[in-house]
């Protein structure tokens, strides 16, 4: 019944006709609810998802003859309360697909809309299942199933980082990305709430256990199997402080993992594609495609 309801909701979504939509789950959805998809529009950043019950992958195929054989799952940010769908999802997918990458934008359940154990587990389950699903689509879509990476923004960067440090294997398919790109990511969760208080509250609640804090404090979970990572941040980011990226970068280096860091002097938080921003941050996506070519 849950799968039937999920497929029914999937067929009614009117969001975007130019992309192909794949369900994240082909079996029952854990922590399933039948609430409708809710979308809000902002004149500055476009569509924002404010509730998701059926996780999906919106696929943007690469420009013909420009394919690189690599796929990237993009996770928009929004403090685990919304998803900045256009600003940090569709805009980025269109750029990557124009440069030869198979781009998937993940819509995942929002912890702020969930309760109980589902609040802290559903989003990560969606991200892990999304990576697994993309691997299973590799042969039919034309990329390598061992060239599947993840890219996340802000709280979406925390989710992408969580998928990078917490991997599972099911039916011989790993959920660990082959590479990660974390853009002004939240990486720290602790009693001091000095990563991003809102994201931590929405994911873990008012009084998280020590176990939950350790699990989602990402630098603490980096090991030698963590995928090579590119971190993007602005020094003047006051929303998610640069120390989030610096702490994760230091952990990668300590464990011998390939780590690149681009720290721009200006750019603030939530710059998205940054095409309208002055200064070097406007070219960060070119840095990404240069880095991806070497992965």
Automatic annotation (TrEMBL):
Coiled coil segments of this chain: none
Molecular function GO labels: hydrolase activity
One Pfam short name: BD-FAE
Keywords per UniProt: Hydrolase, Signal
InterPro entries: AB_hydrolase_fold, BD-FAE-like_dom, GDXG_lipolytic_enzyme
Transmembrane annotation, as ranges: none
Superkingdom, natural source: Bacteria
Family annotation (SUPFAM superfamilies): alpha/beta-Hydrolases (SSF53474)
Gene3D superfamilies: alpha/beta hydrolase
Region forming the signal peptide: 1-17
Residue span(s) of domain BD-FAE-like: 60-251
Protein name as catalogued: Acetyl esterase/lipase
């Amino acid at each position: 019944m849950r799968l039937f309801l999920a497929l029914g909701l999937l067929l009614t979504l009117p969001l975007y006709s130019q992309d192909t939509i794949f369900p994240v789950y082909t079996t029952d959805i854990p922590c399933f609810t039948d609430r409708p998809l809710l979308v809000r529009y902002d004149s500055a950043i476009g569509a924002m998802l404010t509730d998701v019950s059926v996780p999906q992958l919106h696929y943007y195929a690469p420009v013909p003859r420009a394919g690189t054989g690599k796929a990237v799952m993009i996770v928009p940010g929004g403090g685990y309360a919304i998803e900045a769908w256009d600003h940090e999802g569709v805009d980025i997918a269109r750029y990557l697909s124009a440069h030869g990458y198979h781009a998937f934008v993940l819509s995942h359940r929002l912890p702020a809309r969930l309760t109980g154990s589902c609040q802290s587990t559903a989003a990560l389950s969606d991200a892990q299942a999304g990576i697994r699903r993309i691997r299973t689509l590799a042969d039919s879509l034309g990329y390598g199933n061992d060239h599947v990476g993840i890219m996340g923004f802000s709280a979406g960067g925390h989710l992408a980082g969580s998928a990078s440090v917490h991997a599972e294997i099911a039916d011989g398919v790993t959920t660990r990305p082959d590479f990660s790109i974390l853009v002004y990511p939240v990486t720290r969760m602790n009693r001091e709430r000095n990563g991003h208080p809102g994201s931590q509250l929405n994911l873990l609640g008012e009084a998280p256990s020590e176990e939950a804090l350790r699990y989602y404090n990402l630098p603490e979970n980096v090991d030698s199997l963590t995928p090579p990572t590119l971190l993007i941040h602005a020094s003047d980011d006051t929303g998610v402080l640069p120390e989030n990226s610096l702490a994760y970068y230091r952990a990668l280096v300590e464990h011998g993992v390939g780590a690149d860091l681009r720290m721009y002097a200006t750019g603030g938080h939530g710059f998205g594609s940054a095409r309208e921003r002055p200064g070097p941050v406007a070219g960060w996506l070119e840095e990404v495609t240069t880095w991806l070519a070497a992965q």
